[in-house]
Design goal:
Elements (H helix, E strand, L loop, with lengths): L2 H24 L4 H18 L9 H20 L20 H17 L2 H11 L4 H8 L3 H19 L3
């Protein structure tokens, strides 16, 4: 194995769970589609690894590739409406009832799916726990704008989940 293969293997192992969670968010929990997008993301990472210049952190670069891959898929899929399947996503709420949690999760992802593609990217990265400064780098909008948008998106999602 050459050094590129070793580097790639390390990148793959360290970033697979994050990329998978992000893709699951984009596909509203459709696991088979998410896995396809993860595979596509890592193919692009492999193809572009030589071009990576360390100007941003590697994590930011990987997220950018992942977001762009998912957005391209959303543009392709937008024509076809599809049902939601949510498998392994956690949501924190006050309910101890698994069925209620599942319903809330389905509702949350339905609401996230109604957002514009940029807002969807922002909230999924926020839910992933990324610093807002990094989100602004990935999405390509000012840090201040990201903070404002996250606040608005959360209000919008709260209303949507509560059917207001």
């Amino acid at each position: 194995m050459g050094s590129k293969e070793i580097t790639y293997q390390k990148i793959y192992e360290e970033n697979y769970p994050k990329v998978m969670r992000l893709c699951m968010g984009y596909t509203a929990g459709n696991e088979s589609l998410a896995k396809d997008l993860v595979q596509e993301t890592f193919i692009k990472i492999w193809q572009n690894l030589d071009a990576f210049r360390n100007e941003s952190g590697i994590g930011t670069w990987i997220y950018r590739i992942c977001v762009n891959t998912c957005l391209a898929e959303i543009r392709r899929e937008r024509k076809k409406d599809r049902e939601l399947q949510i498998d392994s996503l956690q949501v924190s709420d006050s309910s101890d009832n698994p069925a209620e949690k599942e319903d809330m999760l389905v509702q949350l992802y339905k609401c996230i799916n109604k957002l514009s593609s940029t807002n969807k990217a922002i909230i999924l990265l926020e839910l992933e726990g990324l610093p807002q400064l990094e989100i602004s780098e990935i999405i390509g909008i000012k840090h201040e704008a990201v903070r404002t948008r996250i606040h608005r998106i959360k209000q919008q999602l709260t209303k949507c989940v509560n059917n207001e």
